Here is the input.
Amino acid sequence: MDNEDSTKTMLVVLRHAPHGSSWLREGLDVALVGAAFGQTVDLLFLGDGVQALVKGQQQGPLGQKGTHPTLDMLAMYDIDTLLVDAESLAQRGMTEADLQLPVTLVTASQLPHLFSRHASVFNF
Amino acid sequence: MRYALLVQGAPYSHQAAHSALRFASALIDRGHRLETVFFYHDGVYNAQRLATPPQDEPHLVEAWQRLHHEQGTALLVCVAAALKRGVIDERESRRHGKQGHSLAASFELTGVGQLIEAAMTHDRLVTFSP
Amino acid sequence: MQLHLLNRSVASSHVYRDALRAMGDDDYLLLIEDGVYGAVAPLVEHFSSIAGRLFALREDLESRGLEERCAESVIVVDTEGFVQLTEETERTVSWF
Here is the structure.
């Protein structure tokens, strides 16, 4: 990160679970477009947002699109920093072993710095 | 300073559009410029051409249009979020073989890239969500 | 230094907890819309960790009939004051 142009760093915070609303999908879209526009994008999964990473997701009834296929595309867009709030994960009875991608756990004390060090923050 | 707003709440369902419009007029009163409003998620319904509120309620679509006419504010609507919600301009309507269009005048369909751009090029981006 | 906006009542949504956890030591929190329900005792106690940095939007307090009941520890600002807070801080983060 230190070598990156700091004016082009973007944090996308994902706080909503898949399927129940479109916040997660539309938040991920902003992340992908940001990366396509040359931003260095970090994702932070916070609160119910950690559910986005759970293994074994499928599309919903009537073909409702899930978000799990989008997660597989992140690497293609050079989005490889997936930050997960450790407390949110623990609260939901989950560990890293339950997640479909490798992640970096962040502690409560690291959260404020995450928000302040990125040039732009999108909170979904 | 140059401001951009991100509006994500549908009009008449949530307070987001009211809050954003109130904030818009206050920032202009303080000598700032409102250059861009980006509509995303259910916020795209703010661009509905056929919105017909009763006379004793504020006409939010017209309030956005006034900002465009009086301040030159760009009213940008995310095309992906809009099309699937039935907010469609003449060009897209033709392209998809639809009858009629629903995007109000002064609003334009655009990509999410414009939101990223707004975050980079404006001094402030303030989000109003449902 | 950042300005955080919260539009949910602490009585019905836990999102305020994440907002508080994300706040830096000199960040501000402004309660708007249904967020202003948290500006009244006893709910305002949820914000005791950010005393002196908690604001509430006057127009939203007034429209909800809460202006008289707003806790003294809360700094009440009108929308002009809201704009001023966005001038003083580098960025705004919205929690909903």
User: Anything to note?
Assistant: The mean pLDDT of chain C is 98.
